[in-house]
Design goal:
Number of helices of chain A: 11
Oligomer: heterodimer
Order of helices and strands of chain B: HHHHHEEEEEEEEHHHHHH
Strand content of chain B: 5-15%
Helix content of chain A: 40-55%
Strand order of the largest sheet of chain B: 1-4-5-8
Shape of chain A: globular
Distance between the termini of chain B: 53 Å
Order of helices and strands of chain A: HHHHHHEEEEEEEEHEEHHHH
Largest interface: A-B, 42 and 45 residues
Structural class of chain B: alpha+beta
Largest sheet of chain A: 4 strands, mixed
Shape of chain B: globular
Radius of gyration of chain A: 20 Å
Number of strands of chain A: 10
Helix content of chain B: 40-55%
Number of helices of chain B: 11
Distance between the termini of chain A: 27 Å
Chain lengths: ~375, ~400
């Protein structure tokens, strides 16, 4: 096993700075909270700047296919920043999940997603874990798709749906124009990343790939997304810790800053300890996905370890903000909702541990 | 300096010094003199001012050639703590005198810091040093001193001025463990054996030439030692399943009859934590290598202690009936902690020390919250009080 690079390169730090500056400017807590109550919960103007102008949608796409020829390492940095801001943009659905599927399938459609001009969504339930059976809720027949897929991430703003379906020749991945499908947005636990149900009724579809190629492309997309989600989760944990430390330094009770009480200091020290572990583990998954080394173990470890850390950090943020942490006007709840949804996305920690046990030979 | 150049140097050295025809000590002395001991140390002191990250290349090249090593586990205190302190604060004569036999292992070191009344509150220490001509006369008691029964030298912190607040008025020395008045007594522990010692110092004469740093500056010097202690504890690269997790995983694989679903859940959870901690250690080393050491060391020590304790506890449950037995309660004085050559009961009991030695987890959490996160410090009632007036 070659030594993984667990640090951030200068290029990655530059990318982080520009993404962070944009998100700070355009997706502050007040703006986020105001937006989630409107008819347009996604900020598509922000998406356009982030995806197209900053070029983050095509980071892991080769230049020959209209991308930037970077890798999952750079995408992971964007995901960290999106975790820190929970900005309502369809980055996971389009730039990660749908892009990874098209990348694995070698599809021409990739260039549209890479430019950020088209938003894609991969029509699987967000809870689908790597290693799951190929979905069979949609059937392919005579050039059309019929069936239903529930809780698809970012589908309500997608232009293009990538749909796994089973036809007479076995499994396949198909592309469907979103206007040919019925997409019903669900009331989502996560207010800033919504899920929607997709219903297809003889919708015209083009085959992207079929047979084992389709199964492999889907598996690759789920694995990539699960691995990169750990970076978003690291960003959530970092926000929760930073925000809570700031609050506890300024909040006075019993005549002194609450952050001076040892019982609270030690809880924050524990969160810091978890964050140190989360960052290294997420970084390893991003690097493994970039180099192709040790991918299944790196991703399973990342999801088993980092998911619960993000949830714990968000829960502690709510608790340690006291009454304020329970209010709608403080953004802590947005992060808790994201953290808990992320814990279910692409398989729960328990599911990843079960998978890992087989991978590292710890038999039942 | 590149890895290539260093590998070439090692090859040239090996061509000129055949490990099979030289004694281990002669070989190590020559290696030191060639600047291939610790490459990041200065020239003339066993190094050549190369990046610290390249040390791994050098070690690997010597190991591949079957060259003798300097048994680093045995002399961790010397290598990890005494050496960087002497390098930072010692005079040129002191560096020349102590660093070579320290590195070759000819002289073993121990650390006379903790006292019965000064553990986590190290700056409360009471061992007195009084100036007498060219010497200092030292009297007091130290405790938790590993390797004291093997050591020729000790790093020692003493109180030289009781009339100023406790963080002032301390002075740092190198103490000859064979000097008259130094008495080492084994201290029997929870495991039944005495890996630590108590050290009684009764009018021990230490020449002023063995003082490190200025009189009254002992706290500052000790901080350097303690910082390096934490780096040394977390500083070695580990393969996957290195350490306690590998041991328990092996038992799991070898002994199917012991398995239950509940134990498996916990084992896999710890496997994940161990792998995550290993990666955090690797990341910390990479940061150090590019000259940007982070503050993660304290956090990793806390996590390491918790994991080791959880794993060693799990191992005993896994062993079931066998876990009810203990190898041997005979009082012994081992040269080093041996987690892997001993039985599970020993590991469980010895791991209790992981959250106490080298800074308790409670003190480390204070350090993280105050120095890393910038939270307010604990109220200090002792800050401006002369040491002699402190309640004790």
């Amino acid at each position: 096993m070659s030594t993984p690079d667990l640090l951030y390169s200068e290029v990655e730090e530059d990318l982080r700075s520009s993404v962070r500056a944009l998100l700070t400017d355009r997706a502050g807590p007040t703006a986020l909270l105001a937006r989630v109550e409107t008819d347009a919960p996604y900020d598509l103007a922000l998406w356009k700047t982030l995806a197209a102008d900053l070029g983050t949608a095509g980071l892991m796409v080769p230049e020959s296919l209209g991308g930037h020829g970077a890798s999952t390492r750079e995408v992971a940095v964007v995901m960290e920043e999106l975790g820190r801001s929970v900005a309502p943009v369809p980055y996971l659905g389009s730039a990660v999940l749908a892009t990874a599927a098209l990348l694995a399938a070698g599809s021409e459609l990739l260039s549209q997603l890479a430019s950020g001009s088209v938003i894609g969504a991969l029509a699987v339930p967000l809870s689908t874990a790597p290693g799951s059976a190929f979905p069979d809720t949609v059937s392919f027949l005579d050039g059309t798709l019929t069936g239903r897929v529930s809780t698809v991430a970012d589908a309500s703003v997608a232009d293009l749906l990538i749909v796994p379906a089973v036809g007479p020749d076995g499994p396949g991945l198909y592309s469907v124009d979103a206007s040919a499908a019925t997409v019903t947005e669900a009331v989502s636990l996560d207010l800033t990343r919504r899920v929607a149900d997709v219903t297809l009724d003889s919708a015209a579809a083009q085959a992207i790939c079929t047979g084992s190629a389709a199964a492999e492309a889907l598996e690759s997309a789920l694995t990539t997304a699960a691995g990169l989600l750990a970076s978003e989760q690291t960003g959530i944990a970092e926000w929760a810790l930073t925000e809570t430390v700031t609050y506890l330094k300024g909040r006075y009770q019993f005549g002194r800053p609450v952050g001076g009480f040892q019982s609270l200091k030690h809880r924050l020290a524990n969160l810091y300890t978890e964050l140190v572990n989360a960052r290294a583990t997420a970084r390893y998954a991003a690097d493994a996905l970039a180099t192709g080394n040790d991918v299944p173990i790196a991703v399973a470890v990342a999801q088993a370890r980092v998911s619960p850390i993000a949830v714990h950090a968000a829960e502690e943020a709510v608790q340690l903000h006291g009454g304020i942490g329970m209010t709608w006007e403080h953004p802590a709840h947005l992060y808790l909702k994201r953290a808990k949804s992320d814990q279910i996305a692409f398989g729960t920690p328990g599911r990843h541990r079960a998978r890992l046990a087989d991978l590292v030979d710890l038999p039942a | 300096m590149t890895a290539e150049e260093l590998r070439a140097q090692v090859a040239a050295f090996l061509a000129a010094h055949d490990p099979s025809s030289l004694s281990a000590v002669d070989f190590l002395r020559a290696r030191f003199d060639a600047g291939l001991a610790w490459v990041h140390f200065p020239e003339g002191l066993g190094g050549q001012g190369a990046p610290r990250a390249l040390q791994g290349e050098v070690e690997a090249a010597f190991a591949a050639a079957g060259a003798p090593d300097n048994n680093p586990r045995r002399i961790l205190i010397g290598l990890g703590m005494a050496a960087p302190t002497i390098l930072a604060f010692g005079t040129e004569e002191q560096k020349k005198r102590y660093l070579r036999p320290l590195w070759t292992g000819e002289e073993v070191w121990c650390q006379l810091f903790s006292e019965p009344g000064a553990g986590s509150d190290l700056a409360a220490l009471a061992t007195r040093a009084v100036r007498d001509g060219d010497d200092w006369v030292v009297t007091g008691q130290k405790v938790w001193t590993s390797s004291a029964h093997l050591a020729q030298w000790a790093i020692l912190v003493t109180r030289t001025d009781p009339d100023v607040p406790k963080h002032q008025g301390m002075t740092y020395f190198l103490c000859d463990m064979t000097a008259p008045g130094v008495e080492v007594r084994p201290l029997r522990q929870i495991t039944g054996e005495a890996e630590f010692n108590e050290v009684f110092l009764t009018e021990v004469r230490i020449p002023d030439s063995q003082r490190i740093g200025a009189v009254g500056e002992g706290w500052k010097v000790a901080q350097t030692t303690l910082m390096n202690e934490r780096v040394a504890i977390g500083g070695t690269a580990m393969p996957r399943e290195g350490g306690m997790i590998g041991l328990v995983a092996k038992t799991w694989r070898d002994r199917p009859e012991l398995r239950t679903p509940e134990l498996r859940d916990r084992l896999v959870q710890h496997w994940v934590e161990a792998e995550s901690l290993r990666l955090a250690g690797e990341r910390q080393r990479q940061q150090l290598a590019v000259g940007a050491p982070g503050p993660e060391g304290s956090a990793m020590k806390v996590a390491f202690a918790e994991l080791n304790q959880a794993l060693s506890g799990l191992e005993l449950e896994l062993l079931g009936e066998e876990g009810l037995r203990y190898e041997d309660w005979t009082m012994r004085r081992p040269e080093q902690v041996d987690f892997f050559g001993r039985d599970a009961g020993y590991r469980y009991l010895r791991a209790k020390g992981n959250s106490i030695e080298g800074g308790t987890s409670e003190v480390l959490r204070n350090i993280i919250s105050e120095r890393v996160l910038g939270l307010p410090s604990e109220p200090r009632v002792d800050k401006d009080v002369a040491w002699k007036d402190l309640p004790r």
